[in-house]
Amino acid sequence: MAQLESVADLIMGQSPPSSCYNEVGDGLPFFQGKADFGPRHPKERVYCSAPRKVAEPGDILMSVRAPVGPVNLADRECCIGRGLAAIRARDIDSEFLYFNLIHAEKLIAGLGTGSTFHAINKNQLSFVEVNEPGFDGAEQAKIASVLNLVQKAIEQQERLIALTTELKKSLMHKLFTEGLRGGPQKQTEIGPVPQSWELVRLNDVCTFLSGGTPSKMRPEYWSGSIPWVSPKDMKRPRLSYVPDHISEAALKDGSTLAPVGAVFVVIRGMILANDVPVALAEVPMAFNQDMKAVIPGPHIESGFLLYALTAFRPLLSRKVGRSAHGTMTLMSSEISQFIIPLPDKDTQREVASAIKTLERKHVQHQSKHAALSDLFRTLLHQLMTGQIRTEDLALPESGVRTQAHREAPRALRIQR
After folding, report:
1. Among candidate residues 91, 144, 82, the one with its CA nearest the CA of residue 119
2. Residues 6+ apart with CB under 8 A from 248
3. CA separation (Å) from 373 to 33, 101, 120, 125?
4. Which of 356, 357, 407, 416 has its CA 20 to 30 A from that of 72?
5. Which parts of 183-247 fold into alpha helices (H)?
6. Cα–Cα distance for residue pair 224/49, rounded to 1 Å
């Protein structure tokens, strides 16, 4: 172990007068704290014409005030305010030190003090311990290269997730306003929709179920095989697995089973202040009292219902109110009377299929991102603590761009 001051120079930021700030590119990019951090390098929003403290390209930027610990890399000369410190590697590989500080982030965060918000001073930062379990400069560079490979793969998946999110949003808007072939439109109370589609209220084409929570005082209720959904599970558009399961007895005593194809809508909770989560059940599922299950009737396809509620979710959000206790609530009557456009069933299937194809790509990128993030955390800990060495990993040939480079888990198998 080595103390940070023994391997790097520390430059604590100092904010210049506010009269020096501008948004027209005069001077150096000005970064004040974690809010300016991008995935790997900070993103400029404000410039400073009279900087007091300057970071150089390659310096590690650390947030030292609310929050303490997150790091980024300076990719250019920049002005740093008092929310940041620049850590300039001296007797250690700079990128190795960067990953070392990511590994130590929770420890560093614990050093923060202050009643209003946590901060760390230069003296505290100086004594932060850096792992150096027998690594020479060449090994440090190799470790940084391995972690860089995974980090870049994660960033690529983040870009693809953002792209597919926007593409799905744009596709739904186009399909629900113009139809499959861009035919004539009509203006309605929910906005422009294809002229041949009719408007229906949900209670004209669907039925509804209310859920419940079995007693938490009965442990045997929570050891069954029936999936039980609550708002915390509503992070994906389709649900086939959730962590909580209940027994048949629990179902009879405190919940309701929704069939395959039911679309869950969150109707209660502070999450409704920002969004109205909806998701389709791909297997029979029980659910809690903060949700409503919308069961499609014979005239509407379940996939189309899911995407119609998603596409018109901003209108659904306007129906959210507050209960007498202050909880955000979407009344059952608002859901049952909610209006959606409805084409013939063949068109419904085509619309749902087109959106699902893009949705599937989005979910694939989310799964890859999760796997890569797990890999990064595991490698970071094991490499920084010397549990594994770079020679234990099957690495792709340098300079060759292969699928293995794009999907780091395949490239970083441990040799047995």
Report:
1. 82
2. 224, 226
3. 24, 17, 28, 27
4. 407
5. 202-205
6. 65
- Whole-number CA gyration radius for the chain: 27
DSSP string, 69-112: EEEEE-SS-EEE-TTEEEEEESSS-HHHHHHHHHHTHHHHHTT-
d(CA 252, CA 355): 36
pLDDT in tens, the chain (416 residues): 789 999 999 999 999 998 999 999 999 999 999 999 998 999 999 999 999 999 999 999 999 998 999 999 999 999 999 999 999 999 899 999 999 999 999 999 999 898 788 999 999 999 998 876 567 888 899 999 999 999 999 999 999 999 999 999 999 999 999 999 888 999 999 999 999 999 999 999 999 999 999 999 999 999 999 999 999 999 999 999 999 999 999 999 999 999 999 999 999 999 999 999 999 999 999 999 999 999 999 999 999 999 999 999 999 999 999 887 788 999 999 999 999 999 999 999 999 999 999 999 999 999 999 999 999 999 999 999 888 888 888 655 543 343 434 455 454 544 43
Among candidates 16, 130, 3, 114, which has minimal Cα distance to 65?
A: 114
What pTM value is reported for the model?
Answer: 0.82
Alpha carbon 45 to its chain centroid, in Å, reads 23
**295 token code pair:** 């069961």
Distance between start and end Cα atoms, the chain: 29
Query: d(Cα 379, Cα 143) in Å, to the nearest integer?
Result: 9
